[in-house]
Amino acid sequence: MINDLEYQTIKPSKNLSDFVDSFWCMENKSDQTLETIGLPDGRIDLSLIKTAETSFQIRLLGLGTQQYEKGTIPANSKTFTISFKLPAVEYIFHESIAEILNSGRLLENDFWNFNETDLKDFELFSEKAAAKIHSLLLKEVDNRKQKLFRLIYESNGAMSVKELSEQSNWSSRQINRYFNQYFGLSLKAYCSILRFRTSLEHIAKGKLFPEENFSDQTHFIKEIKKISGSVPKALFQNKNDRFILLSALSSQ
């Protein structure tokens, strides 16, 4: 089934890399609707979507903490997406996304001046999106927050809240207040999602034992199942390519 899906990814320029994880596109070129299950990846997704059956839409998907309910990738559909890191919420969107934890919302069809014609060329879309993001980006970034997020992402969520607090010179109480206000979850919960996401990269390659960030195999299996609803072996087998994130990682 994955052969019917075409993926392409573009990484952001260095000046946006603290805020944007990637620009990516997915196209279902087949005449069949593909069933899929979403898995948390620690990113906020802004997507432009057009299918053969529905009109052009722009959607914002908040953070996920667990396996998403089964969804579909419509036949003959195309999706262009900007995947954001957490600092983008305050410094680009300038508003909280706490209310769309494990959900999303439709945006206006001209949001950020995007339109249906932007789905014609992925590279041009990425350039337009990067320029828009750069224009919205607040120039002054709190040094504590900048340090905190870099530690979180560089360690793939492996550092404890205590370590992150000490190294960023920001109290854990203030950090968790900030996380709950802007993202709808605690720092510890977010770090667990990042560790899970990193583990999926190993699982996609058939490595079903913890590579890092887990004390032992039992802990590894327990955490993977808690977030995904499946054990590592079932994720790796990925029958019918139902786990779309794993399918994308396997295709890279």
Topology:
Layout: E1 5-10, E2 20-28, E3 34-36, E4 44-50, E5 57-61, E6 71-73, E7 77-84, H1 87-93, E8 104-107, H2 122-136, H3 143-154, H4 161-168, H5 172-182, H6 187-203, H7 217-228, H8 232-237, H9 244-251
Antiparallel strand pairs: 1-2, 2-7, 3-6, 4-5, 4-7, 5-8
Can you give me a brief rundown of this structure?
The protein has 252 residues and is an alpha+beta fold. Helices cover 38% and strands 18% of the residues.
Give a verbal description of the structure.
With 252 residues, this protein is of the alpha+beta class. 38% of the residues lie in helices and 18% in strands. The chain contains 9 helices and 8 strands. The protein has a 6-stranded antiparallel beta sheet. It has a two-stranded antiparallel sheet with strand order 3-6. Strand 4 (44-50) and strand 5 (57-61) form a beta hairpin. The model has no long low-confidence stretch (mean pLDDT 87).
Largest sheet: 6 strands, antiparallel
Overall mean confidence score, pLDDT: 87
> Nearest-angstrom radius of gyration?
18 Å
* Series of secondary-structure elements, N-terminal to C-terminal: EEEEEEEHEHHHHHHHH
Name the structural class.
Answer: alpha+beta
Low-confidence stretches: none
Looking across the biggest beta sheet, what order are the strands in?
Answer: 1-2-7-4-5-8
Beta content comes to 15-25%
- Approximately how much helix is present in the residues? 25-40%
- Kindly report the oligomeric state of this protein: single chain
* Count of helical regions: 9
| Tertiary shape | globular
**Number of beta strands:** 8
Distance between the termini: 16 Å
